[in-house]
Design a protein that fits this description.
Shape: globular
Number of helices: 8
Number of strands: 7
Strand content: 5-15%
Radius of gyration: 17 Å
CATH superfamily: NAD(P)-binding Rossmann-like Domain
Bound molecules: nicotinamide-adenine-dinucleotide
Order of helices and strands: EHEHEHEHEHEHHHE
CATH architecture: 3-Layer(aba) Sandwich
């Protein structure tokens, strides 16, 4: 029997990068996976290859969350695992950030995780419990120059996770809520945006002198979602090659 046999698992931002690796790993370990992403064609294509369901979603849209969870309820009648992964970042000095750009980033990186919890938890409660993994970052625990918006959003995810973990624990929901904090991960978008010299500089910032592979973040995510992490809730799991250990 596979580790996630019979589990209904939702992964946001699943068309590419870390989310794609997470969705693939869950599917390989027996879960029924609902992959969502703003890129409809890409998510449908990956989901099709995995024999799973791909759905277009903007995680910042509350109406979309209501329709998505309602659809999962009608089709599967339960929801066991939510990985709130969708997010993005850019760098700019704080004095140069447009308010509209700040709000757009917070809407995806923080509102998107809040909405996942707000609308996922009621169905998870009716399913008898479950596990939520929120995608934070090492920059949800430590700061970095020119990264104010991203750090604020990911720091928000870190504390949102702890607050909701306590809420679920106190209610006896049997829902564990944890955040995961990758260092830099060698995703296609990192490869596209950064020059080889920039990638080398990033490597050297990590004590292990390399970037993560998306599969390494996926393995840690599956651990948090699994019964192996049954006594973990409200935790920050750093998967950052030692970046925040200094
Ligand atoms: N790559 C890294 O180095 C790194 C490090 C730490 C944390 N993270 C976090 O991991 C998560 C995934 O990052 P990634 O590197 O795989 O990025 P990526 O750009 O490769 O993939 C992100 C996916 O999220 C989707 N997405 C973005 N906005 C969305 C929205 N509004 N609604 C639905 N989908 C949306 C994108 O279409 C894309 O498919 C993000 O939350 C990111 O902040 C990444």
């Amino acid at each position: 029997m596979a580790r996630f046999d019979g589990k209904i698992c939702l992964v946001t931002g699943a068309a590419r990068g870390i989310g794609a690796a997470i969705a693939t790993a869950f599917a390989q370990e027996g879960a029924t996976v609902i992959l969502t992403d703003q890129h409809a064609d890409e998510v449908a294509s990956l989901a099709g290859a995995l024999g799973q369901t791909g759905i277009e979603q903007d995680v910042a849209c509350e109406a979309g969350w209501i329709a998505l969870v309602d659809g999962i309820d009608r089709r599967h009648g339960r929801l066991d695992i939510v990985v709130a992964n969708a997010g993005y970042g850019w760098q700019k000095p704080v004095t140069e950030i447009d308010l509209a750009d700040w709000r757009a980033l917070i809407a995806v990186n923080l509102d998107g995780v809040f909405l996942a919890m707000k609308h996922g938890i009621p169905l998870m409660r009716r399913s008898g419990g479950g596990s939520i993994v929120a995608m934070s970052s090492m920059y949800g625990s430590v700061g970095a120059p020119d990264t104010a918006a991203y750090c604020a959003s990911k720091g928000g995810v870190t504390m949102l996770t702890k607050a909701v973990a306590l809420e679920c624990a106190e209610r006896g929901d049997n829902i564990r809520v944890n955040s995961i904090h990758p260092g830099y991960v060698m995703t296609p978008s990192v490869r596209e945006v950064l020059t080889p010299d920039q990638v080398d500089a990033l490597r050297m910032q990590h004590p292990v002198k390399r970037l993560a592979d998306p599969a390494e973040i996926a393995r840690a995510t599956l651990f948090l979602a699994s019964e192996d992490a049954s006594f973990m809730t409200g935790a920050e799991l750093h998967v950052d090659g030692g970046f925040t250990a200094r």
